[in-house]
Design a protein that fits this description.
Blueprint lengths: L1 H7 L3 H42 L5 H43 L5 H15 L10 H59 L1
Amino acid sequence: MESNNKLTSISDRDWLDLAFKHFVQHAQQRVQHFNYFIVFSSLISTATITTLTSSNKVYLIALVLGSIQILISFIFIKIDDRNRFLIKHSEEIIKQIEISSCTPFALFSTEENVTKMEMANDKSFFKRSYSHRKSYNIVYGVFGFIGIFVIIYSTFCLFDSHSSNKQNFIKDGKSKDTLNIKIIESTSIDN
């Protein structure tokens, strides 16, 4: 019974402070994770471009880097989903406290409706406001598709280089055989 009294002694202001700190922590964490994703993906993309444009053209390494790019995109999408859930959870608590306190300055409660109206009015793709979720998912998707493209391109080039090496070997083998035949013919004609 004593724990119930302690729990009810927490004021709405304390709950609001706690929920807001929770909101800020996860919102900052979400942005930090996005920044880490940009750094990791940029490094992988740079390594991939360097691998594909080098004189050696090691397509197997590019294939692995493309796979890593897709994996990193997927992992960061899932991390972002979790952070978004925690942020929304904090927002809902803050909204409930704002509504129960009957304050005219209900920042979180009114923001959702205002944003929905603004997004409904903006029909143009370029003028429309996008949520962090949509914006982040576009970036995650672009880097994921870059990884898919690199895998397809590397696989194609890998098979193409193997088939051209095989053809070069066959051509070289025929030319050597022809050369050997000509040498044998010339020595037999001389005798």
